[in-house]
Design goal:
This protein has 146 residues and is of the alpha/beta class. The chain has a single domain (4-140), classed as HUPs (Rossmann fold, 3-Layer(aba) Sandwich). It has helices spanning 12-28, 54-74, 93-100, 116-122, 125-132, and strands at residues 4-7, 32-39, 41-42, 48-49, 84-91, 106-110, 137-140. The strands form two sheets. Strands 5-2-1-6-7 form a five-stranded parallel sheet, sandwiched between helices. Strands 3-4 form a two-stranded antiparallel sheet. The chain is globular and about 50 Å long.
């Protein structure tokens, strides 16, 4: 995918990333892809466990991401991206974001700001993607960071 890709998950952090990505795509005159990942369950041998409702849940995630995208687009002041595509995939979040970034100009993610011991225990999607991405990654910090 070329252009800018922004990962969204319905949180306020990802909405800030979506707003930033829309402004940047408009300025750069590049397409914007809004990507949401319906988290897969890790099965035996670290593969993806498949369930009958995976496709329906992925479509629900796409509909939610489309609604969020439409809301942000409606509130934009100034230039708009030339094209906006909303996609939903089923898989492991970090892997899907890294793979989506192949050939992209930039990957934009919101940062929850977890650090220190919390990061050591749980890991960080944004941190893992930033370390392994094929393109530049922009992490949009939380609004309340001082």
């Amino acid at each position: 995918m070329s252009g800018i890709i922004v990962g969204v998950d319905g949180s306020g952090h990802s909405q800030r990333a979506l707003e930033w990505a829309m402004h940047e795509a408009a300025i750069r005159h590049v397409p914007l892809t809004v990507l949401t990942v319906q988290e897969a369950i890790r099965g035996y041998l670290s593969g993806v466990a498949v369930y009958p409702d995976d496709e329906a849940r992925t479509e629900e995630a796409r509909v939610a991401a489309q609604a969020e995208t439409d809301k942000v687009l409606a509130g934009l002041d100034g230039p708009r991206p030339e094209s906006v595509t909303v996609k939903a995939v089923h898989g492991f979040v970090v892997d899907e974001l890294i793979n989506a970034g192949k050939g992209a100009d930039m990957l934009v993610l919101g940062s929850r700001g977890a650090g220190g011991f919390t990061r050591l225990m749980m890991g960080s999607v944004a941190g893992q993607v930033a370390q392994h991405a094929y393109c530049p990654v922009l992490l949009v910090p939380p609004e309340n960071r001082s």
